[in-house]
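Lest this sound abstract, we think one record worth quoting, the chain in one-letter code, the fold tokenised, each line plainly labelled:

>
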Amino acid sequence: MTTIIGIAGGSGAGKTTLAKALVDSSNGRALLISHDRYYRFMPCGNYDLPEALETDLMIAHLKRLRSGHSVKLPVYDMISNSRKEDTELVHPHPIIVVEGIFVLTQPKILEYMDLKVYVETSDHLRMSRRIVRDEKEKLRSESRIIQDWNAHVMPAHKALVAHGIELADLVVSGEDDVEETVGRILARFMDSESV
């Protein structure tokens, strides 16, 4: 049986860092799937909308993995805002960790989650992290990042992401030590497995 752990929270909350640490601690038993892989090009330039992601494809991949089949995950280029022709072949694992801002607020995804984790982090720290990340990974200027934050990121967070905290089985802080947080998730995971 495959267990799917969903990790959500606002942009810059620390979801990806936590998800990677969780997978790294699994001794090869876990696979990480980022919802970000499923972005599609948005002519409007707003990528903080559920329709910017091909969620149905991700769900189809989760179904196949859960039923024991390998899948080819899309590879998204954040600089060009487009999918690459290359894909990444992945195989079924006992644990799948799915992370993304909408993982706990989209009903289609939510029904596949066995354990739901929300990463709560202050808006100021999230924005600071976003600036550092986007300057490095997306080659954007600080002024453009802040403009996007105010125009798209925060409105989407308030309207579409933040209420994921109410649906979570476990709420963790993106400002705590990552290894300690991984320990909390694993403890909760073991508790749910023993039920």
Notes: Helices lie at 15-24, 55-66, 107-110, 123-137, 142-161, 178-194.
